[in-house]
Amino acid sequence: MPRVVITGAGTINALGHDVPSTFDAFANGRGGIGPLDIPDIDRLSIRVAGQVRDWTATEHFDLRGLSLYDRMTQFALWSARQAVAQSGLVFDEALALRSGVILGTAGGGLGTIDDSYRAVYAEGKNRVHPLTVPRLMASAGVSHISMTYGLRGPAFTVSTACASSNHAMGLAYQMVRSGAAPVMLTGGAEAMLTFGGLKAWEGLRVMATDACRPFSADRSGMVQGEGAAVFVFEAYKHARARGATILAEVVGFSMCSDAHDIVMPSADGAVRAMRGALDDAGLEPGQVDYINAHGTGTRANDANEAMAIRTVFGSSPPLVSSTKGAHGHIIGGTGAVEALACLMALRDGVVAPTLGYQKPDADCALDVVPNTARKADVKVAMTNAFAFGGLNAVLVLRRI
Amino acid sequence: MTQTAQTIIGIIAEKALLEPGDLTIDTRLEALALDSLAMVELVFALEETFDISVPFNANDPGTDDFDLSSVGAIIRAVEGLVSQKAA
User: Fold this and answer.
1) pLDDT exceeds 80 at position A126
2) Which of the listed residues A161, A162, B5, B83 has the most CB atoms within 10 Å of its CB?
3) Which of A241, A272, A307 is the last residue of a domain?
4) Cβ contact B58–A203 (<8 Å)
5) How far B41 CA sits from the closest chain A CA (Å)?
6) ipTM for the predicted complex
7) Where are the transmembrane segments (chain B) (predicted)?
8) What residues 212-231 of chain A have any CB closer than 8 A to a CB of chain B?
9) Which of A205, A262, A263 sits opposite B57 (nearest CB)?
10) Is the minimum CB–CB distance between A298 and chain B shorter than 8 Å?
11) Is A246 domain-assigned?
């Protein structure tokens, strides 16, 4: 089967508007969670978030495009632009015909939905923006990326809540590995920091009011983030033939379902997903050097995930960290942004820390690289996503 | 029993899929085996019915200022919040 490598990466998130600034924040233990700045904040009990700051869309897109781009689509396009530029790919007719895009998003164009509902319900208007439908479509980001680069192969959006990006990247990996496409742009995007979006999360009562503290005994829940990351997944031979710089190899993927509960995780599902990804990669647990955990900072996820990791990896598991303490939970885009921490570990030998960590929890007996990045020889990295509704997706990357 | 107490017992019974007559002031919440979603729905129903805000984080139930340990405790806590609102 063809090997699959990553030849480009792009991102925007609370830590920065590109990959170098995000790596710099990871390496220096700098977080991006802070006071949330959106309209009607005084009516929310959640007032912190990993918000993308200083983003002026008009600097990056023309007005015709902007009338069609929800914030989620802007993030996806901006990330794709960086990834394609880094890859050095030129999509000629033959390549473009077979290459495609798969992104994950949980909410789609939520800002557009929020704005149009406010207009008709709160403001009593009888009209919404005429392009509301093409803006809010969950697949809009995929369509605009495919149009920008002329990619006419497989293109679709995956929506599996907090595992959306990992499912998307896993499918893109399988597609390149199967020979169905030589190049896939993949990752995920989310822009859920809207009044309505946050009200919904507030109702579930799982949100922290100050900081996200994954695996810490005093953790009190999630902090939401926003952003995107997009990668170029490419057939190894194709990348070698054109002399591309290879950032990492994708070697394993597994997905499964808990069939258990709509919000509570199951260790069994997490265990099967991690073991499945290792089997797919042909690796033993002892060969994994770093796990980027789902690590949401909720009581339920972190204890469950820690137990699952110890079940798969035994009494001396590899280094584990959750970067959600830094950029927040980017929901459908989170797996993609977190895959960047794996790339950094594989390429720079630096493991991004778990920010917000204050106190060991006996239920989370792992080395979570608290608060300060650590140098480590990482040859193999795993990244976990365990979504609400028990939808699990795990990827394994290798240094090359 | 006050009207408020009767209303609260009705709400708790509904979330626990029981009849109000199955509950007493001393009934412990843990005995009702409410799952995390039912707890969140219970708190929401109390807030909506009495127009109050209940401090409750599902990550750390029990550490908030709102005692959810028994039917009687919930009645006292809700009455407290209602009287604070009136004050």
Assistant:
1) yes
2) A162
3) A241
4) no
5) 9
6) 0.81
7) none
8) 219-221
9) A205
10) yes
11) no
* Residue B60: per-residue pLDDT: 76
Count structural domains, chain B.
Answer: 1
> Which of A42, A199, A202, A205 to mutate: most B Cβ within 10 Å?
A205
The predicted-structure confidence for A308-365, as pLDDT tens digits, reads as follows: 999 999 999 999 999 999 999 999 999 999 999 999 999 999 999 999 999 999 999 9
Indicate yes or no: CB of A262 within 8 angstroms of CB of B36: no
Give the CATH number, domain containing residue A106. Answer: 3.40.47.10
Query: Which tokens hold the place of A238?
Result: 């194709």
Residue at A247 is within a domain = no
Note whether A321 and A365 are same-domain residues. yes
Both A87 and A235 in a single domain?
A: yes
What's the domain count of chain A? Answer: 2
- In terms of domains, do A336 and A219 share one? no
B57 in contact with A at a CB cutoff of 8 Å? yes
Q: Are residues A230 and A277 in the same domain?
A: no
CA–CA dist A360, A219 (Å, integer): 10
Domain range for residue A362? 252-398
Question: A with B: how many residue pairs have Cβ under 8 Å apart?
Answer: 33
Question: Could you tell me the CATH number of the domain that includes residue B19?
Answer: 1.10.1200.10
Range of the domain at B17: 3-86
> Is the same domain home to A124 and A166?
yes
Structure tokens that stand for B69 in this block = 């340990």
pLDDT at B86: 81
Give buried/exposed letters for A89-114 (b at 16+ CB in 10 A, else e): bebeeebbebbbbbbbbbbbbbbbbb
Residue A2 to residue A174: CA distance in whole angstroms: 10
Residues of A in contact with B66 (CB under 8 A): none
pLDDT at A205 over 80: yes
- Closest partner CB to A204 (pick from B35, B40, B60): B40
Inter-residue contact A168 to A186 (CB < 8 Å): yes
| Distance of alpha carbon A232 from alpha carbon A158, whole angstroms | 17
Which among B36, B44, B57 has CB closest to A263?
B36
Q: Is B47 exposed, middle or buried (0-12, 13-18, 19+ CB in 10 A)?
A: middle
Q: Reply yes or no on whether the pLDDT at A91 is more than 90.
A: yes
Confidence tier at A107 by pLDDT (50, 70, 90): very high
**Amino acid (1-letter code) at residue A15:** L
Q: How many CB atoms lie within 10 A of CB B63?
A: 11
Chain B CB contacts of A299 under 8 Å are 58-60
Q: How far is B1 from chain A (nearest CA, A)?
A: 30
The answer to whether A169 and A395 are in contact (CB under 8 A) is yes
Tens of pLDDT along A275-285? Answer: 999 999 999 99
pLDDT band at B85 (very low <50, low <70, confident <90, very high): confident
